[in-house]
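Late entry, written up from scratch paper. The run itself happened at the end of the previous shift, but nothing got recorded in the book at the time, so transcribing now.
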Amino acid sequence: ADADYGDANGDEKIALSDSVLIMQVLGNPDVYGVDGTGDIHISEQGMKNADVANVGDGLTNADALAVQEYLLKLIDKLPKE
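Output as recorded:
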């Protein structure tokens, strides 16, 4: 499927929880990664949706920051260009 930019957790909206999930994936991939053991972990589609800064470079801290910038209206759309 096409990316629904910013919606890391797949709940069909962009919220701070998406940025938090990105940071959790980066900080503890064994629990929150695609194959994570946690009840709430990112999906393959979520990984695609979460790659919103420098699209194509995978998940980075810049993606979590871009979601926050979007929510704070510092940027007007995702993906961040």
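The mean pLDDT is 97.
(Scratch paper discarded after transcription.)
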